[in-house]
Amino acid sequence: MSRSRSPFTIVGIVGARPNFVKIAPIAAALAADGRLHLQLVHTGQHYDAALSDSFFADLSIPRPDINLEVGSGSHAVQTAEVMTRLEPVLDRVQPAAVLVVGDVNSTIAAALVAAKKGIPVVHVEAGLRSFDRRMPEEVNRVLTDQISDLLFVTESEAITNLHREGISPEKIFLVGNVMIDALRGHLKRATSATTTLRQAGFSLPERFAVLTLHRPSNVDHLGTLTRLMNGIAGIASEIPVVFPVHPRTAERLSAAGLSGILAPPSFMLLPPLGYLEMLGLTSSAALVLTDSGGIQEETTALGVPCFTLRENTERPATVTEGTNTVIGTDPARLLAAYAEFKTTGGKRGRIPELWDGKAAQRITAILAKKFSEVE
Fold first, then answer.
1. Does 6 have pLDDT greater than 80?
2. Is 214 annotated as catalytic?
């Protein structure tokens, strides 16, 4: 470690809502430990200020020290803007390391800047692979891992993936899942489903499903979106579907002429929700349908059956051990899975190894051992 750096400062990068959930327990654990100082940089990749603010408040995350305010743009523009605006920050702070979480554009952008400046890169949630390079997140994951110095993984298969890609074993640590740290730490504070639905003008049904849909591969292709929604409408005719609608998804649903099938009582449309509201809905649902990665993990931790509306998942432990079933986008397969769910009640599974709410403590112990002593 260079003596010109701030030996006890870690710069943590967040850019999108899943990052906020992952950084929250790490920030709390570092603060409780006291040996390292976390300087939080919000890239502004997710630029809905009101919703970002709600996540920071819900998760008790300290306000960012710096907001780069990069906003929207293509993958190339967004990545380049983060790199351009972050570099002078790192030049000024000279941290001991840069910590990145997940797989968004801010993750790879910050890792690239740090690596090129010789600053150690710490990747939380390393080694996850969908093996689908058409997904921008997969590219971000693979490249970030290749230039990281410490790789903290959530499940054992991630270690196998990293070994296969030539990552040195001494860099890899199985620590558990910080998403589950956040869930366990906030579940008692979750907003009740009754409250969330009442505020939107709905009554709480006896049983309901929750739907989230946002991935470009699903919502940006009108044929795929139409097939999916027709299958989901078949489920909604039997069990009400609560659907917090991502703004881009709302636009695509309108463009596809699908707004007409989304009427109550089959569908209950909500605006995007804060963390505590979404946690309350998910924990109370009979079934969750999603294309989100994090929700696959949360439903496994909660014991709620989950249908993943993608052809693959980078979180295989949620399938082999947890409550997740990868369905794809074929409505016939979706309806067949729902028929089985009605008969069996869905997968219940078990909690994967080290998903015990202490991942951030393990990460903090390793970081403090490596970076809290001046060489």
1. no
2. yes
